[in-house]
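WARN retry 2 of 3 for item q-0093 after timeout on previous attempt; input resubmitted unchanged.
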Amino acid sequence: MATTLNNENLTLALQSLGLTNNEVKVYLANLELGATSIWEISQKSGIKRPTCYDILEVLSIRGFASSSNDGKRIIYSVASPKQLMQIEERRHKKVIGTFNELEALANSEVSKPSVRQFIGKKGIEEALNLVFLEPKGTEILVYGSTIFFADPIFYQEFTEKRKRHNTHIRLLYSDTPEHRKILARDNADEVRDIRFLPETNYQDIHSETCIFGDILTFTAPGESEPYALLIESRAFALAERQRFEMLWQIAIK
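OK item q-0093 returned
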């Protein structure tokens, strides 16, 4: 039988189940040998017997291995690949159930808003890219200043990601020549709609509010570098979304 110990694909597959490199070696050695003694497993895997004992004990706790006594020695065996799949499926279902409970807790009315701060242009880009963790088709609402979209490379990459993610954006800015010039691109090509508010009633305050899903980001220049404050709250997002829609209705194209 050809050895499996140096098979990289098998090693990576088992490591994805949470096994360490030495645990993978012991598992594969025992799988190839079948039910056998610790001495043979040690010889096959190249791992010292005391370490093999420890590893097989850990694997047994996780359900990946078992032992029996034939009257002369302890015999070890490991779960078959099919059994590993069943173990992983049960674990996956349990994880999904746990995350569903956590999500319900996070979305409960009594949960506190999550607040994070992102510093610098890279931090702002990281905050904005969180929209791509939302379901495809999520709409982004933005009002304020275009000052933080000045980086053409990031803007282009962000726009291309939005297209692939089917993420439409609506923008509200004060009606100034600067904003008209910056935003003078094809709206259909950039998957966006833009409206402007009269400059006399809506001054450029050099900050920006971005709304998507249950997330708000507030971006401002800062004393030394720009920053973004992110708030994840269904109630706050709904309030800001309603504010945006009221302004949208009175804005001009």
